[in-house]
């Protein structure tokens, strides 16, 4: 196995809009030479902003639309709620995209049976999602997305892997059910960290001063996370999941100036 890069490549833009635009320019380049690219999307404010920008290209740029038409779209985490619920990540992303990708390329989590699902119901959806992930080309036995875009929480979470929570260190499954998320709603399904780290490239996108401290912490932990594995933690929860969110060949961070304010000078 080639060693992972020990630093993220950081791109800083003045605001959310230009950060999302820069990321989507790079995304289009990244998928351009792939036959059947697999891209992971995320929820949250910047996840939706990125989707809005992807939707704008889809609607106005024929070359981009041809690439986006043949992309498989996944969600690295989902808020486990009924289909079409306004708080589901896929509902919000779909609305921001303004276009409906082909059903066979739109890989969303099964719906919850009601607004107050149980952990067992979320576990069943996680198992179904893992079965669907089996179609993604593998690297060392794990599904390896070409590109995974992740938001970052002010507490340093990514996807639905929260610092100090046991789910953050799950390493024997591809997906996990979370029933005590500090960010509502409480019940979610998330890719596990080994699946995040199996992606060829992982891109974090974050804007605003509320993210500056989390990013500084993740940056500090980054090199240490590159040289070890989640399995080596033997189930001990991660304290800075965003520092672990690394691609096999590259990790890029797309930030605005406020989010980047506490990073060490390049
Ligand atoms: O379900 C969600 O909300 C997410 O998938 C989550 O991981 C999100 O990406 C971060 O919390 C950042 O969200 P914000 O950009 O809204 O802070």
UniProtKB/TrEMBL annotation:
One GO term (biological process): carbohydrate metabolic process
Pfam entry (one): Glucosamine_iso
Enzyme Commission number: 3.1.1.31
Pathway recorded for this protein: Carbohydrate degradation; pentose phosphate pathway; D-ribulose 5-phosphate from D-glucose 6-phosphate (oxidative stage): step 2/3
Top-level taxonomic group: Bacteria
Enzyme class, spelled out: hydrolase
Catalytic activity field: 6-phospho-D-glucono-1,5-lactone + H2O = 6-phospho-D-gluconate + H(+)
Keywords, in A-Z order: Hydrolase
Any one Gene Ontology molecular-function term assigned to this protein's record: 6-phosphogluconolactonase activity
Glucosamine/galactosamine-6-phosphate isomerase domain residues: 18-220
Family from the record: Belongs to the glucosamine/galactosamine-6-phosphate isomerase family. 6-phosphogluconolactonase subfamily.
Function: Hydrolysis of 6-phosphogluconolactone to 6-phosphogluconate.
Protein name: 6-phosphogluconolactonase
Species of origin: Kytococcus aerolatus
Gene, per the UniProt record: pgl
């Amino acid at each position: 196995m080639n060693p992972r890069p020990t630093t993220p490549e950081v791109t800083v833009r003045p605001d959310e809009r230009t950060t999302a635009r820069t990321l989507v320019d790079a995304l289009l380049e990244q998928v351009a030479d792939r036959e059947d690219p697999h891209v992971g999307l995320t929820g949250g404010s910047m996840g939706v902003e990125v989707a809005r920008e992807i939707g704008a290209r889809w609607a106005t740029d024929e070359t981009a639309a041809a690439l986006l038409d043949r992309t498989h779209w996944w969600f690295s985490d989902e808020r486990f709620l009924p289909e079409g619920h306004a708080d589901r990540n896929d509902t919000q992303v779909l609305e921001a995209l303004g276009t409906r990708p082909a059903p066979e390329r739109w890989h969303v989590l099964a719906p919850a049976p009601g607004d107050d699902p149980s952990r067992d119901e979320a576990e069943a959806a996680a198992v179904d999602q893992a079965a669907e992930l089996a179609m993604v080309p593998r690297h060392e036995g794990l599904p390896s997305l070409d590109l995974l875009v992740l938001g970052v929480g002010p507490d340093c979470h990514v996807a639905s892997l929260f610092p100090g929570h046991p789910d953050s260190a799950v390493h024997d499954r591809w997906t996990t059910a979370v029933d005590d998320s500090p960010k509502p709603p409480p019940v979610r399904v998330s890719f596990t960290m080994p699946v995040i780290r199996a992606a060829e490239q992982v891109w974090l996108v974050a804007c605003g001063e509320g993210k500056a401290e989390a990013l500084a912490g993740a940056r500090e932990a980054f090199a240490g996370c590159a040289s070890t594995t989640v399995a080596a933690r033997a189930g001990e929860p991660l304290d800075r999941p965003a520092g672990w969110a690394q691609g096999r060949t590259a990790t890029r961070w797309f930030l605005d100036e406020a989010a980047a304010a506490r990073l060490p000078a390049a």
